[in-house]
Amino acid sequence: MKIGIGCDHAGLELKNEILLLLKDLGFECVDFGTDSPQAVDYPDFGEKVSEAVSSGRIERGILICGTGIGMSIVANKFPHVRASLCNELFTAKMSRLHNDANILVLGGRIVGKDLAKEIVRTWISTPFEGERHCLRLKKINFIEDRLKKK
Predict the structure, then answer these.
(1) Residues that are catalytic
(2) For the chain, what is the domain count?
(3) Range of the domain at 69
(4) pLDDT, tens only, 49-71
């Protein structure tokens, strides 16, 4: 699986930790930046990862900003992106089981690196449950398609 990762300056340290984890787990990673502690605008990096997931160039993405809220807002603007802000294990698991989330969002100033790594492990390893949840995702896709036509 190819995983894209992006962050702003507030998520840089955590992004680097997660990149090492993903590589250790054998995943192919695409680093969309930032690579500097200099202040940057999170939408610039959220857009890069979200567009790659939306277009199908990568299967999943991870976004990190200070709280995760801004990146979540950006990511969920893209068609077929289901970004979930998860700062603990239960939501990480449920975002995959019930929502087939394809972008994980973390708050770099909210969650510590050890917990963040466990969240990533949980999110990566949890499959989509399918069945009754497929109908709900189809409804979300219908809403997206209807709004695109406006």
Answers:
(1) 65, 98
(2) 1
(3) 2-148
(4) 999 999 999 999 999 999 999 99
